[in-house]
Design brief:
3 strands
Length: 139
């Protein structure tokens, strides 16, 4: 029998927009607390929907499930995880900025090569691969 504040995995999935498969996986990793009915079905406690949303938001910010488990474990132990999370946010931001810089450099190369290709639509094709991909195409 399910108590009024408890949720079946299907109910929790509908409430959060996650799949049952995802919720099972997160449960198996220890990220979601649950109990089992006599029938063996999982029953989720109050607050599970908020935890699911926290997990998804943290993932969207590039936190791994391992990182998220550490944050949740610290919280359960009564330790505020904010200093660690603040440090991790800074590291994630630095990584994103590096990726953006690499993508901007790639964009510049692609623009240069496409500009060359459009200016030379019928090049002599006697190279090893394609003239548009060779270094001299940037000239």
């Amino acid at each position: 029998m399910t108590l009024p504040d408890e949720r079946s995995i299907g109910h929790l999935a509908r409430e959060t927009g996650e799949t049952v498969k995802t919720l099972r996986y997160w449960t198996d990793l220890g990220l979601l607390d649950h109990t089992r009915r006599g029938s063996g079905y999982r029953v989720y406690r109050p607050g599970s929907a908020e935890r699911v949303r926290f997990i998804r938001t943290a993932q969207q910010l590039s936190f791994s499930l391992h990182d998220i488990a550490g944050v949740l474990a610290a919280r359960v132990a009564g330790e505020p995880p904010c200093e660690t999370v603040r440090r991790d946010l800074g590291a994630h931001l630095a990584t994103v900025r590096e990726q953006i810089a690499r993508l901007q450099a790639l964009e510049a190369q692609l623009v240069t090569r496409l500009t060359y290709a459009e200016a030379h639509p019928d090049p002599a094709c006697d190279s090893t691969g394609c003239v548009y991909l060779e270094d001299h195409a940037q000239a």
